[in-house]
From TrEMBL:
Protein name: Beta-lactamase
InterPro entries registered for this protein in UniProt: Sel1-like (IPR006597), Sel1_AlgK (IPR050767), TPR-like_helical_dom_sf (IPR011990)
Length: 273
């Protein structure tokens, strides 16, 4: 009996340690700080993963899939996530779906991605709703169904996923379902997504202000949003900003700087940059 209790305690402490490592890894990734002793963390995680610890197998797989502080390796990600998936680990199932959904992955398979997103959703993974909505919107791995896409994206919006707001904006911009574009509604949804921190939406707002789509043309606000998009790494934001700055006065630039500060302060943090 004593031996059995000791085994349980060892297991509990091992799981606790894995959780602490996972939180530490997430904090490093989110903050964008130097990776420090990441190699030793990975070594510890690998040791536990090889011993069959499900949580560690998931963490190692996620590390290799995301490629933060470590070289991205789809094959190793597939291997370790697969082991955790065999034990019905919900997060591992979701990340395995992401691996199949990744356009750059050698395992890209939208049909499999939809299968695993559905499974993750059944197990309570809320973010799977967005990816399922996207799949039905573009017909990736399933027959295109715009009505179902909108329903799934609406569910994702209720979970405050900024990408869902963005996709609804895109549907209005392109006239999906109705056949008629509605730039005003599209702008409203992009604005919601932008203030939730989604960078693609920052760029969209800049474009709408620059060309007067669904909103009055405003080069100062356009410059402000191009700058925010650029600050968050949007590949086209800088080029657009540099082109527009030539048309702005010093007073315009001062006003834009004030807007940038105001927008940034009111913006929520999003992991979906």
């Amino acid at each position: 009996m004593k031996t059995s209790n000791q085994a349980v305690l060892i297991r509990v402490f091992a799981l606790l340690f894995a959780f602490i490592i996972f939180v530490s890894f997430t904090a490093i990734s989110v903050a964008g700080e130097k990776c420090g002793n990441f190699e030793s963390i990975l070594k510890t995680m690998l040791t536990e993963a090889k011993q069959g610890m499900t949580t560690s197998q998931f963490i190692v797989g996620k590390m290799y899939l995301q490629g933060k502080c470590i070289k991205k390796d789809y094959h190793k990600a597939r291997r370790w996530l697969g082991k955790a998936v065999e034990k019905d680990h919900t997060d591992a199932i979701f990340y395995l779906a992401l691996l199949f959904n990744d356009a750059n992955s050698p395992y890209k398979d939208y049909t499999k991605a939809v299968h695993w997103f559905n499974r993750a959703s059944e197990l309570g993974e809320s973010h799977a709703q967005y990816y399922l909505g996207e799949a039905y919107l573009y017909g990736r791995g399933v027959k295109k169904d715009k009505r179902k896409a909108q329903q799934l994206l609406a569910q994702a919006m209720s979970l405050k996923d900024p990408r869902a707001h963005y996709q609804i904006g895109y549907m209005y911009q392109k006239g999906v379902r109705t056949g008629r574009r509605n730039y005003s509604k599209a702008f409203g949804w992009y604005a919601k997504s932008a203030l939730m921190g989604y960078n693609n939406a920052h760029f969209k707002l800049a474009e709408f202000y620059a060309y007067g789509l669904g909103v009055r043309r405003d080069k100062v606000k356009a410059y402000a949003w191009y700058t925010i998009a650029d600050l968050h790494g949007h590949t086209t934001g800088n080029a657009k900003k540099e082109k527009l700055v030539k048309r702005l006065s010093s007073q315009n630039l001062a006003e834009a700087q004030g807007l940038i500060q105001r927008y940034m302060k009111s913006m929520e943090y999003s992991e979906y940059q």
